[in-house]
Amino acid sequence: MPSIAPEGNPSLYLLSDHLEAALARGEELLAEELALDAxxxxxxxxxxxxxxxxxGFVASVRTLEYAMTARLLQARKRADDLRGDARLKPLIAxxxxxxxxxxxxxxxxxxxxxxxxDGADAALTFLRSRGLIAPDAPNLELVARLGVEExxxxxxxxxxxxxLDLVATFLDALDRLFDLNGDPVDAAEIPAVQARRMADGxxxxxxxxx
Length: 210
Description:
By secondary structure, the protein is mainly α. It has helices spanning 10-30, 44-80, 89-107, 123-129, 160-178, 192-199; strands spanning 33-35, 145-147, 153-154, 158-159. It is elongated and about 60 Å long.
């Protein structure tokens, strides 16, 4: 099958754009953190400031998560448009499988008993479901710091670090196949080991893109 020229395939550009944006939002998520003062050491003014900071932290994390998830769901659609190229089938299959939990979570947005995205009835529920605090933590009394790390559960379903590696690997493979900033290259230029690992469902060595 001949190479898909980027200029002749809008979905290829759109896919790359959505993947780049999702990766950027994920990296921004990893930068989110909040230091919490000990309750007995904080006066009223500090308590009010900390409450504002906490609300801002949760809102920012939620917004970045939603934005990242929306981009990944759009990338799934654009990737589906490119299934006709046999070289992309293992890449698309890996990406689709890795992001399936997010698609399931989005599909449940209208289900009042399965709202992964709105944090149920409290910010604490959101933090527990994302792995930011222990599942049985009753409050933030013993928490000195809140910070998003690679174990963060996007939509309460998928590990953030794994998603970032998946997206980076997909982007790297697309660039090797199509050289999106230059001329298309032949699939043979992708190392055989990497192509085989991708086909087997194991991520190849990713290159992070900011």
